[in-house]
Amino acid sequence: MENLTQFSNEQKEKELNVIMGLDFGTSSSKVVLQVPEYIRAYPVIFENGYPDSKFLMPTRPFFDKNGDIQLASVDDTIPLRELKLRLLGNDEAQLEFVPEMELETTPEVLTVGYLARVIQLSRTWFLKQYEESYKQFKVSWNLNLGVPSIGKQFNEIKEYFMDIAYAAWSLSLHENITLVASEKVCEEMHKKSVTVKDIASINVLQEVIAQVLGYAKSDVRKEALHMLIDIGAGTLDISTFNLFERERKLKFSIFTGEVEQLGGFEIHKNRINNVKTFVNEWLSQAGRAENPIKAIPTVIEAYVPNVAEKLDIKTIDLEFSNKCYTAVQENISALLKKYPNAPEYKTGIITFMCGGGRNIPIYQKVLSEINQIANSHGTPKVKEEDLHKPKNIESSIGEEHYHRISVAYGLSMPFEGDFDVRTPDEIRNAPTPEPPPDIRDAYPYDDIN
Question: Quick check: pTM over 0.85?
Answer without folding.
Answer: yes
